[in-house]
Amino acid sequence: MGGAGILGGVDSTFLDLNLLRTFLAVYRSGSFTGAGRLLGLSQPTVTTQMRTLERQAGRELFERLPRGVVPTAVADELAARIAAPLDALAAVAGPDPAAGGPADPVHLAGPAELLCTRALPALAPLVAEGVRLRVATGLTDPLLDELRAGHHDLVIATSRPRGRTLSAVPLADEEFVLVAAPVWARRVKERLAVDGPAVLHSVPLVTYAEDLPIARRYWRHTFGRRLSCPAAMTVPDLRGVLAAVAAGAGFTVLPRYLCLDQLASGALVPLHEPEDPPINTGFLVQRPGPAENPDVPRVRDLLLRAARSW
Predict the structure, then answer these.
(1) Tell me, what's the pLDDT at 101?
(2) Which of 24, 56, 112, 167 is the 20 to 30 A CA-CA neighbour of 228?
(3) Residue 14 DSSP SS3
(4) DSSP string, 180-212
């Protein structure tokens, strides 16, 4: 990590290694509190160390916000210089997996539906081998904030995280399909093909959120217009949406993987089958650098292999 000039003329060769480790944790977590949690330090200790580093540098490294911090251009440059060497050092100095004793649980988070129908069945062999999992569900943005703060090891995200503080690799594509039970399909499917999506305004819309994110995206991508009908039912779990629609509650837009069995059995009918259906890419996200828990890469690698068949 030799060389000078990156920190207002301060030679980073002579900066305290602990300060650099703390700096990198703040940079990646987006907050002093999150960095403290990752490093096992108190928030005041992290604050003091960053003030010391900024005083040595003669430059501000982070803009303090009401919630968290934003790195300055100087911090971006410093992180680019020190991240790889510090990660390599952490890998050498990390715990020896051959030392014995059970590894800590792997904390995995993501959408409840994808976790329960795809990820957890794929990870069952690792659990049988002794890997411990702690699973949390939720929406992507809050889960990514919690990942930065050290609450999770891996997050399955429905969008690629912005910025450099997290590492993301594509996991799988999900295709969306417009569906209803046969009783509704008989009434509107042919009319939909002729008259367009306005015919669905008389059919109850079932969705998982009041702002209709999946349905709105489908309308915009497929029909080239804005969805204007409100939700008749909202259920904060797509499996509940699936059950309600299969029982005849109305129509919805679902990931195809979630309703394959119902489509095959005829319990659900696709109302519209465009040549170019909307597709969303999911990502497997973690904090950069080597994982201290040797089971984290085992879970990550198995998920990536399993996702090839999803």
Answers:
(1) 61
(2) 112
(3) helix
(4) E-HHHHHHHHHHHHHH-GGGGGGS-BEESSTT-
- Sign, CA dihedral 72-78-81-86, equals negative
Give the global pTM.
Answer: 0.74
Pick the CATH number of 107-171+281-309 from 1.10.10.10, 3.40.50.150, 3.40.190.10, 2.60.120.10: 3.40.190.10
pLDDT at 103: 82
* Bridge partners, 248 (sequence order): none
**CATH class of the domain at 174-279:** alpha beta
Is CATH 1.10.10.10 what the domain over 12-93 is classified as, yes or no?
yes
Residue 265 CB coordination number (10 Å)? 9
Contact residues for 11 (Cβ-Cβ < 8 A; gap 6+): 2, 3, 4
pLDDT on residue 34? 84
Averages of pLDDT over runs of 10 residues in the chain (310 residues) are 47 71 88 86 92 89 88 89 82 59 89 95 96 96 91 95 86 96 96 94 95 95 93 96 98 97 98 94 91 90 94
Report residue 22 as tokens.
Answer: 């703390």
How many whole angstroms separate alpha carbon 310 and alpha carbon 307? 5
Q: 3-state DSSP call for residue 159?
A: coil
Pairing of strands 106-110, 154-157: parallel
User: 4 Cβ partners below 8 Å, 6+ apart?
Assistant: 10, 11, 12, 13
H or E segment to which residue 156 belongs: strand 154-157
